[in-house]
């Protein structure tokens, strides 16, 4: 069945049934844990669910706050009735998008435009130009390394002092030193995460189908991701649209397995670090321990936990580059202050977008003199790559 | 005009204080230039968001022209230099997307340079004719046709 018809047929009733919203007890635990509600008092997940149950479809669809949700999943873990709020938001946004409502895209929609352009077939991208001779890749490999949107982020976020392709380079270095020569797809498309979470299901399905076809053609058995958003999308969302018959692993899971088998030698690095759980890897996929195991495997590294960590970890403040506002900024500042309070030199994360958002909060401080939130942000992959014994 | 010949569709962001007036001067001076270009007047090239340019390619335009004041002449002091920075970033982005760098042009053109403006448009059109249609052009080019 064509996707368009699925979306059009999806009604509020279907969404309520699928996301089990009718189980809601109106206890309000979701609103008390919601990071947005803490700052934006008018935002409440409980009220959204209540509106849905009252059948106020119009009010929900045209509520701009539908796109404010960070989809961090904190409410879902606290919910005693097991309401799938993430699915509720995802489907409601698709419904709203069908009715001409969209969130306020950050960067004026630059990233959304790029993704839509990418969804066109028949154009060869030049996305592997960052790849230099120092890295070994193989077209015959059974392992695929998923690069993600890093090549596009490089020019966009250069002014933040970030090079997102460094994460891809670090990953390749680690994989190479473990004797893995992964395959890279020269015309990889965006996984479609941002499209799905802003309600553009049509573009999402186009991207998913193209990616699935390329992966099938490549004949790989395993895909390794360095971006948790791509990982989540492949694992949780793709099965509803396309078929992917591969093992899917985040690089932290792959590395912790490799370290267990004693396949990696590290030099000593003296550093005190703290780990920020990205929503997609933590709450969405339940991967809490592997990144911590990898960080602690490096001698000399002291890992301290922030006040809110693992399931309770605070979001970096935006998802899918939508509705990034002053509340997002305040969440970011709160998280960075929390990281600083641990006395750590560096905040380690496993998501390139968390890195982008934290750096943005530090660089774009604005006129007013706020609290000191300067702290080094680093991807786990780069920490490991730097500690590798050459 | 040959019906089978490829006619590129260009969107031009022109600065209110210079290039838009230059286009006006070209008109009042009866200097003709190809009708392939849709002018969008902006108050300064410094307000041309990268998203506008990408959106133009998304809608199926074959080329984008940004025309502003000569460096040092900006009505808002440095807007044109900001545009210059953004165009550099955008060229890198459209390169990764698989588009030719020449599809995005940044030109300086003062109020008095009506003839120069006409030349820029003529040059852009002939260059895009050589490059051929944008690979992203066939998608939604209905929108682009309406705009022309």
Secondary-structure map:
The complex is a heterodimer of chains A (390) and B (148).
Chain A: H1 3-9, H2 12-18, H3 29-33, H4 35-39, H5 45-53, H6 57-61, H7 74-78, H8 85-98, H9 110-118, E1 143-146, H10 150-156, H11 165-177, H12 193-197, H13 201-218, E2 222-225, H14 228-237, E3 247-250, H15 251-260, E4 271-275, H16 280-284, H17 289-296, E5 301-304, H18 326-341, E6 346-349, H19 352-363, E7 376-379, H20 380-387
Parallel strand pairs in A: 1-2, 2-3, 4-5, 4-6, 6-7
Chain B: E1 10-15, H1 19-28, E2 37-42, H2 50-58, E3 63-68, H3 79-96, E4 104-108, H4 114-131, H5 141-147
Parallel strand pairs in B: 1-2, 1-3, 3-4
Helix pairs in contact in B: 1-4
Protein described:
- The complex is a heterodimer of chains A (390) and B (148).
- Chain A is of the alpha/beta class and 390 residues long.
- Chain A folds into 3 domains: 3-98, no CATH class; 106-257, Rossmann fold, CATH 3.40.50; 265-387, 3-Layer(aba) Sandwich (Rossmann fold), CATH 3.40.50.1860.
- Chain A is 46% helix and 7% strand.
- Chain A has helices at residues 3-9, 12-18, 29-33, 35-39, 45-53, 57-61, 74-78, 85-98, 110-118, 150-156, 165-177, 193-197, 201-218, 228-237, 251-260, 280-284, 289-296, 326-341, 352-363, 380-387, and strands at 143-146, 222-225, 247-250, 271-275, 301-304, 346-349, 376-379.
- A 4-stranded parallel sheet of chain A has the order 5-4-6-7, sandwiched between helices. Chain A has a 3-stranded parallel sheet with strand order 1-2-3.
- Chain A starts with a helix and ends with a helix.
- Chain B is α/β, with parallel strands linked by helices.
- Chain B has 5 helices and 4 strands.
- In chain B, α1 (19-28) crosses α4 (114-131).
- Chain A binds chain B through residues 105, 107-110, 113-114, 116-118, 120, 122-127, 129, 151-152, 154-156, 158, and chain B through 49-52, 54-55, 57-58, 89, 92-93, 95-98, 135-136, 139.
């Amino acid at each position: 069945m064509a996707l368009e018809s699925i979306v059009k047929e999806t009604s509020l009733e279907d969404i309520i049934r699928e996301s089990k919203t009718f189980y809601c007890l109106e206890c309000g635990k979701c609103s008390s844990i919601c990071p947005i509600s803490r700052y934006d008092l008018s935002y409440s997940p409980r009220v959204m669910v209540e509106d849905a149950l009252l059948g106020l479809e119009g009010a929900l669809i045209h509520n701009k706050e539908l796109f404010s949700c960070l989809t961090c999943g904190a409410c879902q873990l606290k919910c005693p009735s097991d309401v799938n709020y993430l699915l509720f938001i995802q489907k409601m946004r698709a419904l709203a998008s069908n009715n001409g409502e969209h969130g306020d895209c950050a960067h004026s929609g630059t990233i959304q435009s790029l993704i839509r352009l990418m969804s066109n077939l028949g154009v060869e991208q030049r996305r592997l130009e960052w790849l230099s001779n120092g890295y070994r890749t193989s077209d015959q490999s059974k392992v695929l390394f998923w690069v993600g949107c890093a090549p596009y982020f490089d020019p966009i976020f250069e002014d933040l002092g970030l090079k997102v392709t460094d994460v891809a380079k670090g990953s390749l270095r680690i994989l190479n030193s473990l004797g893995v020569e992964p395959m890279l797809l020269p015309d990889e498309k965006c996984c479609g995460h941002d499209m799905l979470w802003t309600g553009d299901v049509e573009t999402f399905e186009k991207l998913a189908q193209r990616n699935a076809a390329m992966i099938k053609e490549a004949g790989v058995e395993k895909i390794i991701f360095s971006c948790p958003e791509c990982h989540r999308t492949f694992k949780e969302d793709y099965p509803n649209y396309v078929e992917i018959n591969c093992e899917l692993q985040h690089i932290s899971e792959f590395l912790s397995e490799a370290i267990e088998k004693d396949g990696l030698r590290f030099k000593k690095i003296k550093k005190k670090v703290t780990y920020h759980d990205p929503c997609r890897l933590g709450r969405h996929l339940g991967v809490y321990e592997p990144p911590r195991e990898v960080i602690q495997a490096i001698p000399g590294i002291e890992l301290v936990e922030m006040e809110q960590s693992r399931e309770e970890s605070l979001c970096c403040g935006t998802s899918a580059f939508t509705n990034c506002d002053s509340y997002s900024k305040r969440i970011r500042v709160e998280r960075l202050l929390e990281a600083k309070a641990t006395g750590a030199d560096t905040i380690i994360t496993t998501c390139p977008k968390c890195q982008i958002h934290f750096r943005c909060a530090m660089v774009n401080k604005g006129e007013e003199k706020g609290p000191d939130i300067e702290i080094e942000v680093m991807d786990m992959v780069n920490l490991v790559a730097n500690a590798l014994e050459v | 005009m040959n019906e089978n010949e490829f006619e590129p569709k260009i969107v031009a962001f022109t600065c209110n204080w210079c290039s838009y007036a230059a286009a006006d001067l070209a008109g009042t001076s009866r200097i003709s230039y190809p009708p392939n270009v849709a002018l969008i007047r902006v108050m300064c090239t410094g307000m041309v968001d990268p998203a506008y340019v990408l959106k133009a390619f998304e809608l199926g335009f074959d080329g984008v022209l940004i025309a502003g004041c000569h460096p040092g002449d900006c009505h808002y002091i440095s807007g044109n230099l900001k545009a210059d920075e953004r165009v550099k970033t955008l060229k890198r982005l459209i390169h990764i997307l698989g588009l030719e760098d020449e599809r995005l042009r940044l030109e300086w053109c003062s109020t008095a340079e009506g003839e120069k403006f006409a030349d820029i448009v003529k040059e852009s059109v002939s260059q895009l004719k050589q490059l051929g249609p944008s690979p992203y052009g066939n998608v939604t080019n209905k929108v682009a046709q309406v705009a022309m």
